[in-house]
Amino acid sequence: MKNSGFTLRKRALSFKYAFHGIFLLISREHNAWIHCFAAVCVITAGIFVGLSSMEWIVICLCIGLVLSAEAVNSAIEALADRVSPAYDEAIKRTKDLAAGAVLLLAIASAVVGLIIFLPKLTLLS
């Protein structure tokens, strides 16, 4: 594939494609819906308890990382299904590893959430 150089039109198109990818993630991927619901709950709770700027930064990074990992996982699954529609052990392993990566990041984000929110919630009671 020949690279014909940098143009503003190409950069604008790359953003268009990226936003379309976000739209596809949020509109079609069921697991992303769960992550988005969790994100809305966390943001609502953060507003309620009054998170600090640094806590918001960490929360935003966790939400972004989990959704990004889910997008990469969905892309891997779509490509794998296209390349090998029939059952293939290597494809299964690849898809399981990608899903595991999302789960690890979601668990780590939940732990971060507990570290941030538990002290604030215990002060409310």
Automatic annotation (TrEMBL):
Domain of life: Bacteria
Coiled coil: none
Keyword Cytoplasm: no
Residues given in the record as a divalent metal cation binding sites: 29, 77
GO cellular component terms attached to this protein's record: plasma membrane
Gene Ontology terms describing biological process: phospholipid biosynthetic process
Protein family per UniProt: Belongs to the bacterial diacylglycerol kinase family.
Protein's recorded name: Diacylglycerol kinase family protein
Organism, as annotated: Phocaeicola coprocola
